[in-house]
Amino acid sequence: MMRIFAGLCVSLLLAGTSAIPAMAQDYANESGREVREERLQRAEQDQIIVTGEAREASRSEVRRQARAIAVSDNIYDVPLARFEQPLCPGIAGLTADTAGLMIDRIRENARFVDMRVQDDGCNPNFIVAFVDDGQAMLERMIDESPRRFQYLSSVEKREMLEPGPVRVWTDVQPASRDGMRIGRGRNLVNPPSMRAEMAHSKIYTTIRRDIEMVWVIIDRDAARGMSLMQLADYATMRGLVRTDPGDDLDISSILGLFNSSGPWPETLTDFDRAYLTAVYDSIPNLPAARKIGRVSEELRRIEDAREEAELRDAGLLAE
Q1: What residue spans define the domains of the chain?
Q2: If 0-12 CB within 10 Å is exposed, 13-18 middle and 19+ buried, where does residue 167 land?
Q3: Stretch 103-127: mean pLDDT, rounded?
Q4: What pTM did the predictor assign?
Q5: How many CA atoms lie within 13 A of 196 on its CB side?
């Protein structure tokens, strides 16, 4: 059963995790319990305040946060990257049983946006690794497999290696509207090109951006006190879409999980689900701006559906 990732750079992962106790044990120790209790108390306070703000957030506020977390150089002409191939999550640095719980949660999140999901035994293309030192591990990965990172600019590599509790490497493959792979170049002298026939459109672009592989590398010490569901949902929002959590989120999001000031929600929030839905809805070659613009609409739809379900459960709404 391929619950634990055993492919590319596995030797690096084993070197960084073989001497580390299972993460589930960290949750049970005294230090982890104290951190967990503090975060729960803070999350309860934030839930009372932030949930109200999220319900009252204006369309412009939702759009502003959606734009802030989106990783895109040109939202008007370039689509957001997303998975087009079936998803296969893999976990490194946890026990098999614990990893299985996280994988099941990531699959559940993927199915929420109607993604195709592979069964156990697949070759992972979405890897969450818990290690002692994510920066050192990523540096070793770049040194050991430079061709995997050859299309990253020096700025992108530097940003990935900056100090912090989490690092994400996303391998994005440009493709035509119909999925034909487009060669990638490392300079502007001989840019990649391809020949294809299609009608001119002001609605969609001629290319799409397919996520081929994602690594979400989390420092183990930084994850102490967090639940497996929180970590799985955080990884979902960093891996299924390319996001930058920033330091200050006006609307509650799981992306604030590692921020010192929170918020620290227990699961994906309505905003998170609205963002994922907007990115994975419709065709993959719509400009990023059109996807971002739909987040507020999806947020209202999710909130309305939940309110309707609550009224129905209370017997205040007919079936």
Answers
A1: 10-184+197-313
A2: buried
A3: 96
A4: 0.82
A5: 16
